[in-house]
Amino acid sequence: MVTLKEIAEKAGVHPSVISKVVNGKPVSIRDDTRNRILALLKELNYQPNKAAQNLKKGSNRAIGMVVPDFFNTVYAEIIHGAENMAAQLEYTLFVYSLKQKELQDDYLPRSIKQQIDGILIASSDIDDSDVLALMDELPLVLVNRLSKGIDSYVVADDSGGAKKAVAHLLELGHTQIAHISGPLYTGTGLNRFQGYRAALNEKDIPFHPALMVEAPYSLVGGYNAMNELFKAPVQPTALFASNLLVAIGALKACNEHNIRVPDDLSIVTLHDAEIAAMMTPALTTVKLPLYEMGETAVKQLVSLIDENHKKGTVVEGTELIRRDSTKKWKR
Amino acid sequence: MVTLKEIAEKAGVHPSVISKVVNGKPVSIRDDTRNRILALLKELNYQPNKAAQNLKKGSNRAIGMVVPDFFNTVYAEIIHGAENMAAQLEYTLFVYSLKQKELQDDYLPRSIKQQIDGILIASSDIDDSDVLALMDELPLVLVNRLSKGIDSYVVADDSGGAKKAVAHLLELGHTQIAHISGPLYTGTGLNRFQGYRAALNEKDIPFHPALMVEAPYSLVGGYNAMNELFKAPVQPTALFASNLLVAIGALKACNEHNIRVPDDLSIVTLHDAEIAAMMTPALTTVKLPLYEMGETAVKQLVSLIDENHKKGTVVEGTELIRRDSTKKWKR
DNA sequence: CTGTTAGCGCTTTCAG
DNA sequence: CTGAAAGCGCTAACAG
Q1: Do A183 and A202 have their domain in common?
Q2: Do B163 and B284 share a domain, yes or no?
Q3: What is the rounded CA–CA span in Å between residue A222 and residue A209?
Q4: Three-state secondary structure readout of B170-223
Q5: Do A70 and B92 touch (CB under 8 A)?
Q6: How far apart are CA B153 and CA B142, in angstroms?
Q7: What are the C-alpha distances in Å from A286 to residues A78, A181, A184, A289, B219?
Q8: Residues B144 and B165 in one domain
């Protein structure tokens, strides 16, 4: 690895001159020396040493992102959006999954905390109190989650999306609409539930608690919840599932119970991904702007780092994607 | 952020002494000063500055991992295994997805290359030549892929797994067994294809080229390939799909063509994940030790970094998981 | 326009 | 047992 000093020797100038050239500092440098240096730089393929720069400047142009795990395509899309924006802003993005265990002694290992200038938290497995503590150490923005006392976040229009999904069901003539909600201690779970309630309200359809089950955002979560629903005193003709994985799990349960989708039960869910179209029947979804959320989150974090701009944004834009899992109700 | 020097001042000793205490150096230090220092360290919550350490030592205890994208649960499992082992070995793992674009000027951005001591390549989108070039710069191990001229890799027993899958079909009485292979320019695609051939050979069943279609490892890849297969002059009674996503895509195509699985067509595939059980019918798979591969890859990379041990390992252990997509053939 | 100097925070070798 | 000093590679303020 060639260093500034070496270049300086070969060029017969002082290292600091090289530094100025490399960093394009607004100082005047004689053209011939500048060119000589530039040539050398290229010839020897000079690459500044990051560790030295970091030490000197006390910053890395790197940000971290914490996701619960890598199995959920919802996060995959957020990550890709974040990666893209980070690259545009010339930041490096490091992604980690964080399980409970690691939170115990320290919220984030030092090895990570010290290499980044700010962090994106996209995991709802981390307690509010831990997030608050983290916020004292680093610029932080929440992604697709909310936390008491933190007004720096990027979320989708969960309640609007939910409302749109349920309104679709309503339009199809359904009135017995079940909801498998996300965990109600999460912002997304709560907002989606509220969207569901709001849509029902608009049509003066009473909320029936027996038609609602709370479940984690996972395949088995949806599967188990649907099985719960089968035990309800009234049977729904449609289901609004809080998330794609939940919907897939619910669909499985329906298949096992010989409930035909969409003939016996219409299903609509939030989040769109390729897999939704590959299910049988292909799932009707409301697409959330996940990619954009990732982008926005990085943009916002960087502005927080650079200018201490703190704010919350909800990325608008939800889109109903009609496929084959919803159908007009007539009986 | 409190520094060594500050601690030293408060303790009334020289910074270097603190350094020795912090790092548990095998030098004798009087008990009372050591305790005094230790107390101070805790009280002020001293955290060594990583950038300074990196600069000084020229190493980071960090490794990178490159995956094609975050949508594939196959990689999710490898990542989790790698994360786990990295944590055990006290390395930090940074994961990135790498698309074509970024490869153009430089295989890996400097911002990343310089922060890591070695790299795991789990993406087959990167050309062999690029991988070779990268290997000149960094200790490198290939994960779940092979590359000409690189004998540092960790792969699963792809051909053994494939053979096991096809043997299962054979045992069920199938003889017209189609194969949707992975890209044959990849090591995994090739090995799985060979396993398929080997299983057929053992039962003296001729290989029928019309029953084989090459496809990328993706949902649409499988979907399109299956549609190709429907045009074949002979119709298979069973399918061996090279990968779980491919199988899901193929299943979708079958559903659209009213081919009942498993009655008209049995399907078996490689890789197991929760989603396999959630399909209807639940997919029979051969489980590959992905998590272990991730672990092994990190272990091997670290031994390459520390002791320059270069080797290739195939992580053995494949397991047939019978579910509902395969069935005895009788007609 | 170019050079000097100092120092980021830490580790390590050598001396006391 | 503890201190001094040097230096990793780079940057920035200041001097020449």
Answers
A1: yes
A2: yes
A3: 17
A4: HHCCCCCEEEEECCCCCHHHHHHHHHHHHHHHHCCCCCCHHHEEECCCCHHHHH
A5: no
A6: 4
A7: 16, 15, 20, 10, 20
A8: no
Structure-token pair, residue B259 = 């081919």
Locus of tokens 């991992």? B65
Domain of B231: which CATH number? 3.40.50.2300
Q: Does residue B67 lie in a domain region?
A: yes
Phi and psi at residue B254, to the nearest 5° = -60, -45
Q: Is A93 within 8 Å of B96 when comparing Cβ atoms?
A: yes
Global confidence as pTM = 0.91
Distance, CA of B168 to CA of A276 (rounded, Å): 30
Q: Residue A324 domain-assigned?
A: no
Q: CA(A23)–C1'(C1) in Å?
A: 17
Q: How far is A64 from chain B (nearest CA, A)?
A: 10
What DSSP string runs through B222-237? HHHHHHHHHTSSS--S
At A44-82, the pLDDT tens digits run 888 888 889 888 888 888 999 999 889 888 999 999 999
Percentage helix, strand, coil for chain A under 3-state DSSP, each rounded to 5: 45, 15, 40
The model's pLDDT over B8-33, given as tens digits with 9 standing for 90+, comes to 888 888 888 888 888 887 766 888 88
Contacts of B70 in chain A (CB under 8 A): 70, 73, 75-76, 79-80
How many folded domains does chain A comprise? 3
Look at residue B131 and tell me if it is in a domain.
yes
Is strand D in 7 Å reach of the CB of A50? no
d(CA A127, CA A135): 12
A1, closest residue in chain B (CA to CA): B137
Cα torsion for A216, A221, A227, A229, to the nearest 10°?
Answer: 20
Model confidence at B177, in pLDDT bands (50, 70, 90)? very high
Question: Residue A151 carries which DSSP code?
Answer: -
CA of A4 to C1' of D8 (A): 13
- Verify that B147 and B295 share a domain, yes or no: yes
Does residue B55 carry a pLDDT above 90? no
Q: Which of B262, B259, B231, B31 is nearest to B168 (CA)?
A: B262
Q: Best interface-test mutation with B: which of A54, A74, A324 has the largest number of B CBs within 10 A? A: A54
CA B57/CA A214 separation, integer angstroms = 51
Same domain, B182 and B150: no
A284 and A192, same structural domain? yes
Q: Are B73 and A71 in contact (CB under 8 A)?
A: yes
Question: How far B205 CA lies from chain A's nearest CA (Å)?
Answer: 32
Q: Are B98 and B152 in contact (CB under 8 A)?
A: no
| Residues A125 and A104 reside in one and the same domain | yes
In a domain, B322, yes or no: no
CATH number at residue B22: 1.10.260.40
The H or E element that residue A212 is part of is strand A212-214
Q: Which domain holds residue A74?
A: 62-155+290-314
Give the residue among B201, B210, B193, B215 at the shortest CA–CA distance from B170: B201
A254 and A164 co-located in one domain: yes
